């Protein structure tokens, strides 16, 4: 690669993720040695996944899960926050759509993510999804509560 090759910026990578949310697809934007971190993961779910292949497999599993199928996302409204470090971007997502369980429309502040991007690839993604809000929007709060009551 020559010195004039332009890599995607952190903001551009975040924009790719935003576009993929509507299609329930994760773009191939992870470095080989990247980490996906969910500090508030549900019990039994991984709080850290390492490596591009493992992260992509996890993202595909999440996108095809029953929880994801409960939500028909019709619009993604992103907000991006950039600071002094050009490798870091904070992304907030609001989604609008319809519950495939109840048939009702929803508007949801779905997640906040902090990306560290180096040479156009994510090296670290700290993801803070709104699990309870998503479950409420999807009409699956009872199922979530039942699953959580089994832990302990």
Automatic annotation (TrEMBL):
Location of the SnoaL-like domain: 26-125
Gene3D superfamilies in the record: 3.10.450.50
Domain of life: Bacteria
Xref: InterPro entries: NTF2-like_dom_sf, SnoaL-like
A Pfam family reported for this protein in Swiss-Prot or TrEMBL: SnoaL_2
Name assigned to this protein: SnoaL-like domain-containing protein
Biological source species: Streptomyces glebosus
């Amino acid at each position: 690669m020559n010195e004039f090759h332009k890599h995607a910026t952190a903001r551009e990578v975040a924009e790719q993720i935003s576009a993929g949310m509507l299609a329930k697809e994760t773009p191939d934007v992870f470095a080989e040695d990247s980490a996906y971190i969910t500090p508030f993961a549900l019990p039994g779910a991984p709080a850290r996944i390492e490596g591009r292949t493992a992260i992509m497999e996890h993202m595909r599993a999440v996108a095809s899960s029953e929880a994801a199928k409960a939500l028909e996302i019709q619009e993604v409204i992103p907000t991006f926050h950039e600071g002094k470090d050009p490798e870091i971007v904070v992304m907030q997502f609001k989604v609008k759509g319809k519950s495939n369980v109840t048939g009702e429309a929803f508007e949801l502040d779905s997640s906040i993510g902090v990306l560290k991007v180096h040479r156009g690839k994510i090296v670290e993604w700290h993801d803070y999804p709104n699990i309870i809000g998503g479950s409420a929007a999807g009409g699956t709060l009872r199922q979530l509560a039942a699953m959580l009551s089994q832990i302990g």
